[in-house]
């Protein structure tokens, strides 16, 4: 059965800390891995990763994929209270060729 | 960029009533749309794939007679929660894929928060 697992489930840090969020997957016919940030409404797209070892970066956020070990990490440096959100990992592919979402990581950044 | 709208954004109803949620692609056509449900502090769960001009495809465990989906045009899909009960209270999100048609390029609507009393 295809699955995507994120860890930790929740995390509380202080402003300025660096956090690493993890996403592991077991998905047939892997196409891509995506990261989303969700605050109170619909998820907003962060990154799409298709190749191993190539870091994607956007400001204080960065992500990398390891297709051999079947995982990805999302790093956030110098965290701010505005980074507080649920971070979702999703993998495209699978037996039904759909997006499979992970459980999400709830990040709370305290001032 | 592509925009997907949902209406209503929030609805409160009595148990036993039916609720219709609309999902529209505003500046592009979508032959396929996806409906998700999200319970508090949980991830998105795909409920069904809405197909223009044909029947929706439901995920395992989702009752098709309870969650009626109609994809009437290339820009509109509706989800009707029939005879809603408190356990149906959730955040419902639709999305539409971009030009490639695959889910990776999908655009999410803002979501509809349903509360059934």
Report on the architecture of this protein.
The complex is a heterodimer of chains A (about 110) and B (about 120). Chain A has about 110 residues and is mainly beta. In chain A, about 0% of the residues lie in helices and about 60% in strands. Chain A is built from no helices and eleven strands. In chain A, strands 2, 4, 5, 9, 10 and 11 form a six-stranded mixed β-sheet that branches. In chain A, a hairpin with a 5-residue loop joins strand 4 (about 30-40) and strand 5. The model of chain A has no long low-confidence stretch (mean pLDDT about 90). With about 120 residues, chain B is an all-beta fold. Chain B is about 0% helix and about 50% strand. In chain B, the strands form two sheets. In chain B, strands 2, 4, 5, 6, 9, 10 and 11 form a seven-stranded mixed β-sheet that branches. A four-stranded antiparallel β-sheet of chain B has the order 1-3-8-7, with no helix packed on it. In chain B, strand 7 (about 65-75) and strand 8 (about 75-80) form a beta hairpin. The mean pLDDT of chain B is about 90. The interface between A and B is medium-sized, with 20 and 18 residues.
């Amino acid at each position: 059965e295809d699955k995507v697992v994120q860890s930790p489930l929740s995390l509380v840090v202080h402003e300025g800390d660096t956090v690493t969020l993890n996403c592991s997957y077991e998905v047939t016919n892997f196409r891509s891995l995506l990261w989303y940030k969700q605050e109170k409404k619909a998820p907003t797209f962060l990154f799409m990763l298709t190749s191993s070892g190539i870091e994607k970066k956007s400001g204080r956020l960065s992500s990398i994929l390891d297709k051999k070990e079947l995982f990805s990490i999302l790093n956030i440096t110098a965290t701010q209270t505005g980074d507080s959100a649920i971070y979702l990992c999703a993998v495209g592919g699978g037996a039904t060729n759909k997006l499979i979402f992970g459980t999400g990581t709830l990040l709370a950044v305290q001032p | 960029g592509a925009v997907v709208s949902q209406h209503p954004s929030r609805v409160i109803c009595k148990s036993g009533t039916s609720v219709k949620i609309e999902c529209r692609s505003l500046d592009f056509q979508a032959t396929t749309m996806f409906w998700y449900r999200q319970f508090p502090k949980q991830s998105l769960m795909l409920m069904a794939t809405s197909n223009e001009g044909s029947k929706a495809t439901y995920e395992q465990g989702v009752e098709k007679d309870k969650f009626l989906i109609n994809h009437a045009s290339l820009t509109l899909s509706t989800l009707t929660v029939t005879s809603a009960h408190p356990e149906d209270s959730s955040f419902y999100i639709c999305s539409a894929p971009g030009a490639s048609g695959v889910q990776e390029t999908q655009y999410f609507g803002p979501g509809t928060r349903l509360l059934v009393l």
